[in-house]
Amino acid sequence: MHSFCVQQRADFGAAAGFGSPDVTIALTRCCEPDWLVSQALDSLTTQEGVLAEVLLLDQTPTPALADHCAAVQQPRCDVRYQQIPKRSLSYARNRAVASARADSILFLDADAVASPGWAHTLHAALAGDTVGLVGARILPTWHRQPLLLAAAAVVQDQYSIFDLGSTARPFHRVVGAGFGLHRGRLGDEARFDERLGRRPGSLLGGEESDLARRALARGLRILYEGRAVVHHQILPERISYRWILRRMFYAGLSRALLRGAPSPSRALALTDYLALPVVLPFYGAGYLAGRMQGHGHLHQAR
């Protein structure tokens, strides 16, 4: 652990005269480099049309990132920096939900860049009656030439690519790189299951799908908002067959925890059927591993 004082470097809620925010935006760093998180943060401090607070929850703190948070404070964006234990993404998101000052809570991955109207568009969508969750349009920024397998929807899902077009429409789930929830309507369901989601050494997912299921069960609507755009930065180390196949294993394991059938973001195309013989064995191995470990009753164990 670093010995520097986080509270002195970037005081948690220090912007003088900052009123009640329209939105709270949670940004969590697990082990991403400073430059990558700084790009995500910079995109949040330039959001248009909203008064925002940004909660940067840092599980691998560095003095440079704390200093950057203090430097990018804006009159309409209060950056609140906090060092937290290195546990998981779901744990960090729950910390953000608990301390958010706004009921419209948005989440951006540390390796993503939000377009200037992202927060305003999601906030407006969450203002609709009975809307509990809203997802953004997530486009890839490849840091080297993508593999041929990346043309398949089943692989794009593993990269958190989520493109249903540039308009709004109902959908049954959101994708974690950029989405929002309404805490007031979700009530005690405004939480992420900490047995799911990314953690050091694991590519486990499923926490957003679990949240979406609970929102629908509560009678709330889920929207996809294609005018809210996020660019997901896909770094070279993830553009490999080894990473894709490992991620497919964890996708199967996540599905075993959640139960139910897989739900790709769009209908399967020829590229998917060509990719399935390669990726399906790894997905199936993960699914069987989850079932054999006796974790297939996640929802019943609540």
**Amino- and carboxy-terminal Cα gap:** 33 Å
Described by the principal axes of the CA atoms, the overall outline is globular
Continuous helix count: 10
Helix content: 25-40%
| Beta-strand content | 15-25%
| Rounded Rg | 19 Å
Mean pLDDT: 89
Task: Give the low-pLDDT segments.
Answer: 1-16
Structural class from helices and strands? alpha/beta
Beta-strand segment tally: 9
- Please write the string of helix (H) and strand (E) elements: HEHEHEHEEHEHEEHHEHH
Largest beta-sheet characterization: 9 strands, mixed
Descriptive overview:
By secondary structure, the chain is of the alpha/beta class. It is built from ten helices and nine strands. It has helices at residues 6-9, 34-45, 63-71, 89-99, 118-126, 153-158, 183-186, 207-217, 241-258, 270-292, and strands at residues 23-29, 52-58, 77-83, 104-109, 112-114, 131-142, 168-170, 178-182, 221-234. Strands 1, 2, 3, 4, 5, 6, 7, 8 and 9 form a nine-stranded mixed β-sheet that branches. Strand 2 (52-58), helix 3 and strand 3 (77-83) form a beta-alpha-beta unit. Helix 2 (34-45) runs parallel beside helix 3 (63-71) and helix 9 packs across helix 10. The longest helix is centred in the C-terminal third of the chain and has 23 residues, at 270-292. The chain is globular, with a radius of gyration of 19 Å. It starts with 5 loop residues before the first helix and ends in a 10-residue tail after the last helix. 45% of the residues are buried. Mean pLDDT is 89; it is low at 1-16.
